[in-house]
Amino acid sequence: MGRDDLLRSEHTPDAVADRLAEGPGRSHLRDLVYGAIDGTVTTFAVVAGVAGADLGAVVVLVLGVANLVADGFSMAVSNYLGTRSEEQRRARVRREEERHVALVPEGEREEVRQLLADWELDEDLRDRVVDRITAERDRWVDVMLQLEHGFPSEPARPLGAAVATFVAFVVVGSVPLLPFVADQAGLAVSAPFAWSAGLTAAAFVLVGVARGVAVGLPRWRTAVETVAVGGAAAALAYVVGSLLAPLT
What we know:
This protein is mainly alpha-helical and 248 residues long. It is built from 11 helices and no strands. It has helices at 3-9, 13-21, 29-53, 57-103, 105-115, 123-133, 137-148, 158-173, 178-187, 192-215, 219-244. Helix 4 (57-103) packs across helix 5.
């Protein structure tokens, strides 16, 4: 079956009904990318800073692992609280809209009517749409939350966001440390910092490619963007470490 045939099969009345019955999915792409990039950048920043100051592999591992655990947890908690705060704001706005609907229903109906102006409906049809929307309070408030305040249709999931951030931070952020782990394990890795830089660049490329796949952009573009941003942070850390080396 070709792609066009598959697309048509997914848009039959029964297929559409089944898909919509499942409800909208909740993506943690932002949280995964956020954790992966930050984990890799900050861990490699530790590696680059220590290498720039010539402090040795053991120091790299101690500071790198400490960064993975402490900073990863901090990032996860921050994302949890930020996401939860946004969801609490959504709940507050919902309560306010419910109060407005109860106290000034005609004013709220006018808001709906004006929010639908961009739909370019004729006057009679727009009035009928407004009547249907405002006939049920929860649906009415949902429309106000989305069209007036810009909230998504589904509430956020703070715990899921935190877990996604922490897992991505630790898993991808551990990549810059692998050559030093191997070296300390007795594998005698030559130039572990060079290997770390190479693996970090590869991790940036893979995260960038994954972003491209997920958002439908050219993979080379998102890969280059990710490598450029991460590489700039790593280079800055290395320069700072080199400048501070005489103090050690």
